[in-house]
Amino acid sequence: MKKLIATLMLGLVGLTATAPVVHAQSGPLRIEITDGVIEPLPYAVPNFVAENSGAGQLAQDIARVVAADLSGTGLFREIPSDAFISNITNFSAPVQFADWKAINAQALISGAVSVESNGTVSVKFRVYDVFAGTELGNGLRFSGTQDGWRRMAHKVADAVYSRITGESGYFDSRVVYVSETGPKDDRKKRLAIMDYDGANLKFLTDSSSIVLAPRFSPNGDRVLYTSYETGFPQVFVLDVGSVQRRVLEQQAGGMSFAPRFSPDGQDVVFSFTEGGNTDIYRMNIASGQRTRLTSAPSIETAPSFSPDGSKIVFESDRSGQQQLYVMSASGGNATRISFGQGRYGTPVWSPRGDLIAFTKQNKGRFHIGVMRVDGSEERLLTASFLDEGPTWAPNGRVIMFTRETQGANGSSSLYSVDVSGRNLKPVRTQGGGSDPSWSPLQQ
To answer: Domains plus CATH for the chain?
Structure first.
């Protein structure tokens, strides 16, 4: 157990202001968040055991998705199966820990899959600390339809991730984004939704009009977005299940955009332009009642609620240049929190409540960065020709954003990066993509 904890301590870097204590002898695994050189934890995932006919391929596929989830974090390194000394062919048989120690597997994940007569798929698994020779927590079982096998795999990976790191997972989640196809001078854009890893793609709108900035509701059942189908921007709300939609804000002579849900899902905050002035408004979805939150003769936009719903961070050029400000969720005086060189925009509050992610433009380069909610400890995580529009994973560990390549035929893609600045990588999409919004964990 001590070696397993020590390795993970190096992998979990700079996430929280206060660090929990490590308990290595007994009780739940708690990881101290410290700076250090990250060495991914080596783990093994033998093919899950097929406990009856019809489960063979599913058992292999589920194990592969679990491994892809864990390795994709950059915190774990899978030991290839050709290095195994023994294998697991019986889920209930005792584990031969010596064989897994010999190949330096510090964590071992075993599982079994069965398909019942009614088509229900059941997946059970266990996680072991190899060097301590003990199981981490108790085994769990997930059940569902054969079509939902990937979700069961993600749930297994979330549970494994949580048991080893002490944090909640983020694999059983989805991303809504703007799918882009065609040349840059005739780019077609439509809303699309997919699993966090790019699987199970579904289009939510057609490409007849420009769509921008989709944003998930707190429970993932609805999406806010901006559409130009009438020739000027309007905010729509779309039901993900039925794909039915309606105009959220419609007022003659005005333009609404940059919407986000409140943490309870009952209100929406957005920007509204009228008479050449852009301010932030809050509206109750049920009643349609609007409240104006800002009234400065400047551009206020990109509002985002704090997780407790008490405050809003937004961007404004009231100082002469785009900067970030925080105000009460009911409006009133705002406090500037960004003071570095360059321009700041698209702020998004972390689900943990401790950080704000943002886009920064400085000296011809764009960055995705994070800062504390008071503006301190600013850190830039990326640098590129154009990086923008961050969105947080449900556990506040990873940030996804848009990266655009330079040139006349430049394209947009989705990327993700760990909040430590490590593990920068592209996100698999069908064609180009921009404006991602990460859902909460699915229910």
So the answer is: 5-23+37-165 (3.40.50.10070), 174-438 (2.120.10.30)
Q: How confident is the model over 273-295, as a mean pLDDT?
A: 93
Contact 367, 346 (CB under 8 A): no
pLDDT at 143 over 70: yes
Would residue 346 be called left, alpha or beta, if left means φ above 0 and alpha means ψ between -120 and 50 degrees? Answer: left
362-412 pLDDT, tens digit per residue, is 999 999 999 999 999 999 999 999 999 999 999 999 999 999 998 767 789
Closest to 386 measured CA to CA, from 401, 371, 398: 401
Contact 189, 431 (CB under 8 A): no
Q: What is the pLDDT of residues 320-351, one digit of tens each?
A: 999 999 999 999 999 999 999 999 999 999 99
Give the pTM: 0.91
How would you classify the pairing of strands 107-115 and 41-44? parallel
Separation CA 223–CA 260 (nearest Å): 9
Residue 116 identity (one-letter amino acid): E
Residues 55-80: what's their mean pLDDT? Answer: 96
Under the banding of pLDDT at 50, 70 and 90, the label for residue 417 is very high
* Residue-level pLDDT at 6: 38
pLDDT at 406: 86
